[in-house]
Amino acid sequence: MCGFVGLYLNNNYNIEVRKLVSILNNMTNTLAHRGPDHKDIYINEKEKLAFGFQRLSIIDLKSSANQPMISKNKDWVIIFNGEIYNYKKLKEKLKRKKNYWRSNSDSEVVLECISKYGFYNAIKKLNGMFAIAAYCVSKKTLWLARDRFGEKPLYYNYDTTYGFTFASELRAFSCFPNFKKQICQNALSQYLRYGYVPEPLSIFKKTYKLEPGYIIKFDKKNKILKKDYWDSLKSFVNAKKNKFKGTFEDAKEKVKSHIDDSIRNRLVSDVPLGIFLSGGIDSSNLVLSLFRQNITANTFSIGFHNNNNNEIDFAN
């Protein structure tokens, strides 16, 4: 995983560049555990925009794949946490010459897709887990997006006195001087009722978690426009309307095929991979899929001295 933070401050918010750099570095440092391989920042002094990024290198380990990353046409800046499983197909569709690309990363493909198709249309093409922040230089707009099932976290805070801030984790906001750690009573009530804080709430006032399948557009007119690009309920209803017409055996083979495709897509990496194997249905099916495809991978299992909680025999 990686981690990022960002600030898009009001024009009338007085702050020296040196102070902005210090704040940004402090916020970014709180996420070092999410990405220990590289850290970098981007600042647009004129627009009071600042991005910070902590990278965990998975695809393309070279420095050319570091972030924040700027598009070829210089109109977009991106910070991206996640992994895009169909990035090679998207790269082919962009039809760029080989020397066009500075890296072999999925981050650059996402960036150039946004540059070509626009943010909203590009996000709909992505198959993966992600949290993305991108800034359009010409239109002076900030965009945020989160994957369909919310695998990657993304929080944002807005206050009329200073502007818009966002981060992969709540702890980063505490390094921004104007951030107020005020408990949201509604969120606290939800936590006591359900044992967690549901989206879009967070435990702090004026700070929210972007919902899965949603996009945010923000500009200096202090407008936050939020729109969904994918709806799980609508997809479920559509699936019920278009029921599978094959036999039970056909359905089993279809499920196996989907699992195999999904596993294969997630094995793209430039670092060693492994699988947590508990012996339960989920992890056992993952390992079985690898076996079907003649793919070898290391598995890791955890055992307990208490036999009531020990699943190591099932994993073996």
Q: What is the tally of beta strands?
A: 14
CA radius of gyration is 22 Å
| Secondary-structure element pattern, one letter each | EHEEEEHHHEEEEHEEEHHEHEH
Q: How many domains make up the coordinates?
A: 2
Mean pLDDT: 93
State the helix count: 9
CATH-defined topology of the largest domain: Glutamine Phosphoribosylpyrophosphate, subunit 1, domain 1
Query: What would CATH call the class of the largest domain?
Result: Alpha Beta
Shape: globular
Q: In this structure, how is the largest beta sheet organized?
A: 6 strands, antiparallel
Order of strands side by side in the largest beta sheet?
2-3-1-9-8-10
Structure notes:
- It is a single chain.
- The chain is α+β, with helices and mostly antiparallel strands.
- The protein has nine helices and 14 strands.
- It folds into two domains: 230 residues, Aminohydrolase, N-terminal nucleophile (Ntn) domain (Glutamine Phosphoribosylpyrophosphate, subunit 1, domain 1, 4-Layer Sandwich), CATH 3.60.20.10; 72 residues.
- It has a six-stranded antiparallel β-sheet with strand order 2-3-1-9-8-10, covered by helices on one side.
- A hairpin with a 5-residue loop joins strand 4 and strand 5.
- The model has no long low-confidence stretch (mean pLDDT 93).
